[in-house]
Amino acid sequence: MTIVTQLSLLCLIHLFNYIQFTKEDQSLSQITQSGWEFLPFDNSIPPLLTTTTTTAQLIYCSSLCNQRSDCRTYDFDHNTTRCRLWDADTTTGSILISSRSQSVVGSIRFFSNIYRNIYNQSCDKCIQSRYSICDQITNTCQCPLKTYWNGSICTAQLFQNQTCSTANACRTDLNLTCEPQCDRTFRCSSISPISVGQTIVGSCNGTIGIGSTDLQGPWGIYISPIDGILYVADCDGQTFNSYSPFSHTGRIVLSNGLIQPLDVFVDRTNTLYMVDGSVNQGTVFIQRPGTINSSIPAIGLSTSSCLANELYAAYGVAVDQYGNIYVSLFLCYTVVKWIPGAQNGTVVAGQRLSPGSSSTKLKYVKFIHVNDDQNAVYVSDYQNNRIQKFIIGGNRTGITVAGGAGSGTGFNQLNSPAGICVTRDGQTLYVADYNNNRIMKWNIGDTQGSLVAGSATGISGETAQLLNGPADLALDPTETYLYVSDYNNRRIQRFRLR
Ligand SMILES: *[C@@H]1O[C@H](CO)[C@@H](O)[C@H](O)[C@H]1NC(C)=O
Ligand SMILES: *[C@@H]1O[C@H](CO)[C@@H](O)[C@H](O)[C@H]1NC(C)=O
Ligand SMILES: *[C@@H]1O[C@H](CO)[C@@H](O)[C@H](O)[C@H]1NC(C)=O
Ligand SMILES: *[C@@H]1O[C@H](CO)[C@@H](O)[C@H](O)[C@H]1NC(C)=O
Ligand SMILES: *[C@@H]1O[C@H](CO)[C@@H](O)[C@H](O)[C@H]1NC(C)=O
Ligand SMILES: *[C@@H]1O[C@H](CO)[C@@H](O)[C@H](O)[C@H]1NC(C)=O
Ligand SMILES: *[C@@H]1O[C@H](CO)[C@@H](O)[C@H](O)[C@H]1NC(C)=O
Ligand SMILES: *[C@@H]1O[C@H](CO)[C@@H](O)[C@H](O)[C@H]1NC(C)=O
Ligand SMILES: *[C@@H]1O[C@H](CO)[C@@H](O)[C@H](O)[C@H]1NC(C)=O
């Protein structure tokens, strides 16, 4: 066998050198000097064998390893006279100096050039390849089981408690996932149960943080549909912060001269809309990549007359796919729409300075949500303890999609609702039921909701299961997790939905 011949020559002469094969299903190995051993987190079942010389044994083990695409490390164990094969490598285990002097460890080498013309290409590129497998659905070459794409190679997935930084970095076959931990790291751990919150920002146990990236009072939140970055309006800290996925460390996006950051929105062009909305004023600051920062209104006018060219007591913000900006005006009892470039807004829900509980009126307006596909704006009608849905450009008559049965803890009731969000398909509404310290889910059309997080009876607390003043919520782009700004606990919690 050519493999054996080539390998034995090189092994005899230069340990630590690489052996290059040309065929796709062959591999490049690195062999340590004698006296090393591999410390694995996990190993696959080793086959038995007996052979004579050390070199022949290693070559045999090497060829066994090469036949299995999940094998990344191997040695010959003299004590048991077996080849040991591992699916772990130095990214998940380590090669250490061994007390057993005859031990030699071999490992398959993985280089980005191996993948350059294979990975994510059509399946004819990876027939018989040990480096990738054909994904039948997309007909493309993808990483084999127990590995993930790290941007340049298919590298071994990580085991329990190892530090991770991407969603699929952990051993999916062992049901591990990359989750935030109380010590403010992200580590591979068992998928946490639904309704147990994971702390993304702040302290998981109610201890109030004072670090520069901690929050003093998170209010509105949003997650970029483009890159999954979490944006937080830290109302009490008077800043807008951003947090990259798999990072607990934030960055201040805007801070100068803010009075009361209340809400934030990011659109599909990664433009940021940030509401500074104290009682006496209201401004939406706009940061569009590559352009000069702007705001609406251009000049910070604001009077209690709730005129069309001002945003008095601005609260929540949402933007549709055409760039129309919707802003709720807490003390004007309306939601207004500003088309791109407009100097004035128009009322799309509620009646200016006319609070009420009929279907055409609102009584203090908190957060809003716009669903493009539905052409609808959802409004958190705070003091009416209900969520109203309005058709954009319709007759301005709202229909109640959650609550509306008075203030209380019944599952058909809400108590001072704040943040809302709706799934892309328009079928499910999530509500931050602020005074009930809970998150409710309402299927559109139902007359009562169900509990997603927090206490059914409204109890507040700082444990992973409880909330204390949930202000706003946001879905991640895959709609797998619901993020909640847990205001009084000064933290952002995340709940798995499925
Ligand atoms: C060799 O194997 C025996 C039995 O499997 C075990 O008790 C012993 O510790 C092993 N020795 C070494 C050096 O691994
Ligand atoms: C794989 O190819 C698809 C389609 O060309 C592309 O959208 C995707 O970003 C690629 N993925 C990676 C990780 O390169
Ligand atoms: C992927 O993993 C390999 C091996 O650990 C490493 O050398 C490489 O830098 C990683 N690539 C990226 C883009 O992280
Ligand atoms: C996980 O790793 C950390 C840091 O290495 C360590 O302090 C902790 O005890 C480990 N947890 C478990 C369950 O092994
Ligand atoms: C992973 O989860 C699935 C589905 O719950 C289960 O069938 C399987 O046994 C689990 N695997 C491990 C290694 O725990
Ligand atoms: C709470 O968590 C923080 C880290 O977020 C830790 O420093 C602190 O010791 C924990 N306190 C308690 C009482 O567990
Ligand atoms: C917009 O504002 C941000 C935050 O204050 C700042 O970093 C950025 O440089 C500004 N962009 C322009 C074009 O002025
Ligand atoms: C904008 O609103 C202001 C205040 O209500 C009003 O005076 C002005 O005429 C409006 N401008 C336009 C173009 O409608
Ligand atoms: C408003 O329009 C909706 C349909 O969008 C309709 O069901 C409703 O009857 C209308 N209400 C009034 C008062 O016209």
Automatic annotation (TrEMBL):
- Keywords assigned by UniProt, alphabetized: Repeat, Signal
Organism superkingdom: Eukaryota
Gene Ontology molecular function: any one = zinc ion binding
Question: Record's CDD domains?
Answer: NHL (cd05819)
- Give the Apple domain ranges: 32-123
The positions making up the signal sequence are 1-21
Gene3D superfamilies (UniProt xref): TolB, C-terminal domain (2.120.10.30)
Quote the InterPro entries the UniProt record gives.
6-blade_b-propeller_TolB-like (IPR011042), Lactonase_7-beta_prop (IPR019405), NHL_repeat (IPR001258), Pan_app (IPR003609), TRIM-NHL_E3_ligases (IPR050952)
Placement of NHL repeats on the sequence: 408-445
Query: SUPFAM superfamilies, from UniProt?
Result: Hairpin loop containing domain-like, NHL repeat
Q: What is this protein called?
A: Apple domain-containing protein
